[in-house]
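Re: that chain you flagged

S.,

Sorry for the slow reply, it's been a week of failed gels. I finally had a moment to sit down with the sequence you sent. For the record, here it is as I used it:
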Amino acid sequence: MKKLSLSVLVAAAAALPLSAQAVSLEFRHDYKHHSDQHGNRVRLSASTGMFHYGLRVKFAAVPNEDGSQDAFRRMNRGDSQLDWGIRYNLTENWYINTGMPIVFGDKNYSLLPQLQIGYRANSLPLTSTLRYRRQITSYANDSSKDYSLNRITLSLSYKPSQNQYWLDVNYYKNEDKDIFNNTAEDYDYRLGMGRRMGSWFPFLEFSDVKVGADTATRQLRSRVGIKYYF
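Prediction finished late last night. Pasting the structure tokens below so you have them in one place:
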């Protein structure tokens, strides 16, 4: 992994149009309880009319000999993701999102074409979405095999007043390799909650995720984060 550089976020901030209608900056830290691994992500997002775009940068500690990671020691930068997409309002309640984020990793890159359909209820502060994403990953060397990963996500978001609660359920199907319990299929689900306090939005999230591709063991992943709206 490459060393973390603040110039990445500075350049991204400079690239955002001054006419952006909504801009937010988010920091998130997560911890996997079984494998004892920490991770961090910074995301800068903006939208202008029907267009939305942003940049995500992950960073984590250099792994220890047993595979575990410390929280904030010997930090290296991981994958970077450039987000962009277009949102179309079909009716007052229905909308679709299209886009193709691009991920730049260590000697690899991924294209993630996606399509999402969403519904906003009138009688309740409830939004539900269904998204299909296809991840196409290519490597710069022959020691790692290219692969394609299909992902379906069902999301529910309930937002009464300043509070927000959400549930995400993901199903994965890899076309080229095993990803969980020696099979090409995997799943996870996430429960989250947060509260808007002025320009700040602190949040918590708990997930059930896999430990590895060759075991059926699952683990808890806890996340804590904060988002600031400009």
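What I noticed first: The chain is about 5% helix and 60% strand.

Talk soon,
D.
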